[in-house]
Amino acid sequence: MSNRAPRNDGSSLTSEQIDALRSKLKGKVIVKGQASDEEYRSLLDRWNKMHIKEANIIVLPESEEDISETIKFVAEHTLDVAIHCGGHTYSGPSSGHGLIIDLRKLRKVTVDVEKKLAVAQGGCLAEDIERATEDVKLRVVMGAINATGCGGITTGGGISNLSAQHGLVCDNVVAARVALADGRIVVASETENADLFWGIRGGGSNFGLVTEFTYKLHDCDHDVYSGFFMFPPNKLDDVLGLFNTIHLDYIMKSDGKFAVNGFFAVREGVVMPGFLVYYDGPEEEAKKFIKPLEDLGPISPPSGGKMIPHSASTDWKQFAAMFPPQFNRIVGSSTQVGYPVSPIVLKKTVDLFQEKIALYPENLGVSKLIVDLRDYTKIASVPLDATAYANRRTGMLVGVDFIWDDPKLDSIMLAEARNYISTLRQTIKETNEQRGIADVGGHVAATTLYPLLTDGEEKLASVFGTNLQRMKELKRKYDPDVMWDKWYPVEPAELPN
Ligand SMILES: Cc1cc2nc3c(=O)[nH]c(=O)nc-3n(C[C@H](O)[C@H](O)[C@H](O)COP(=O)(O)OP(=O)(O)OC[C@H]3O[C@@H](n4cnc5c(N)ncnc54)[C@H](O)[C@@H]3O)c2cc1C
Looking at the domain that runs over 109-220, which CATH code has it been given? Predict the structure, then answer.
């Protein structure tokens, strides 16, 4: 049992103590009840409204020194602390009742064209780095939507349309500067603090706050083909029937250039199937890969792709219509299954989603099921113990997003998402047993869930798998008092007797 002192929310700090912190910082310190309500609320806002909490103190650092001083203050007063970068995490770790270190003022990107490296401050959004690099004909690996913060997506893994060619977002980090729980700032790379470098690539914020990421960049001298293909609800089974073909006969034969997510999106209570496609090459080539989708007769408009810059393919604005503001409470969960995926599993994936949606027809406005058909071979080619990231598999990733409007449904929808994913996992297990297959694309010991698409309550062994013990040992070294306790925090390993 731990005998650590509990963290407190800072409500009993005196104004002298807060002023002492202010005097050390360039950036602002905002205290609940003392700032304008508008400013305070806008700083608390997050993509998922369900987890917004009324923090007592929000610090907006403007330098690494500000971060360091703030962390020392947190340590001195044993405060509850959360890190905010882009605010896009499903499970709400960037909110808290105590002090929030909000990195939104730290969004500078410096590109070294010769070395093909970008140094991004820890508060950058993906769009900051994509734009800065594309301007000089280079490309960074980030997620599919540019509004997400680099902090969460990089420390949590990060799956991109470029991952089949270049690996995970975290696999493209060559160095980082990390603020530790005692306020020291250290470099983490293969040659300096290599254990910490291991931990920040998939271990989230368990070991510190990354003030700066250095990313490897890739050449970018052409536009990409990108777009949606939507189908009427009566083609749902046909769409489902295409999944194995699209993956095995098209994506896997595209040299990593063709990236497709199947999706089932709720529109006024009806589930509409579709595909989000991306091809990293000329339109004539792309057309060959999208042929099975065109043959199936998509709804036109809105279906169809076009040639655009990579950074435009991730532009948040094109997805904004999918998220009407009144539906803003979200829970996600995920699981993975090897190819070829059994028709029983495919059918269960969608039938179960439809069953859940039908239970709450008024409320689940823009929920969706994402079936990620992308090629994970490159991700799974990295040894499982090379980084903390443990989901290095090659299967089809199923991510469910229940999105609703009524706060009264919060606990119900959390339970529904858990039930959805556990039922699906059970179906996968039974089907594999019946087929006599082990279902392990990629590393045998890899986990089957994607930690950035979960509700935050998964067991640590399911998130970190065989890397969990090393995570605990690093926790003992870098954060023995568990200051960083918001995103899948691990317990420090016991000291050997
Ligand atoms: C619309 C949408 C699209 C998405 N698309 C993708 C996708 O294509 N691919 C993918 O892999 N994921 C995707 N995700 C998941 C997304 O990557 C994660 O939710 C990610 O954590 C968001 O990062 P953030 O910085 O915005 O999060 P925040 O909520 O700001 O931060 C969450 C946590 O990340 C950690 N963190 C943030 N910054 C730092 C830092 N500088 N140092 C240390 N720790 C830090 C902290 O634990 C923090 O509490 C998507 C999410 C959404 C909502």
Answer: 3.30.465.10
